[in-house]
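Task card 7
Instruction: Convert sequence to structure tokens.
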Amino acid sequence: MKYVLFLLASLLFVVTTNAQNDPQTEKKVFANQGEQEKYRAEVFFKENYIVQSYPEFSGKITEIDFNTFKFDDQVIVLDNINRSLKPIFLKGLLYPQIIADDISFISSLEELKFLNISPKVKRFKLWLFKKNVSNPTVYLLEITNEQATEKTDIKTFIENGKLTFLKKGWTII
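Output:
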């Protein structure tokens, strides 16, 4: 009987030790929110990535001012957006009708250079603020340009690119 109890206790110790060393059960520690978001984006693409195909916006796009675009009757206001990424909206790759109907504004659109898998593919994240919701939702997207090389600038990349992935990620708390 002592021998059986000893085996069970040993087995329990081995299982507990292995679970503690398992990366899926370890709690990650991040130096800041940016580091955590990079990690979450990387994991998100690994777990959710499926190549998709989205049509460009076919209606009328009006640039009301530097930060405001009208897509037929729906308006997107941009905040904290790099000027070089505006063509994503001007070309009609990203527009309210494929994201959400109740957009208040979009902020913090940025290229995730550490996730770019080739010169032909660029990945981005943005914060989407919905009307009557205080916390933004992270959306992840990918633009593909089959003619791009390492020397292709971002404006040309976007102008000749296609939206090949768009998915709601997580809520920022």
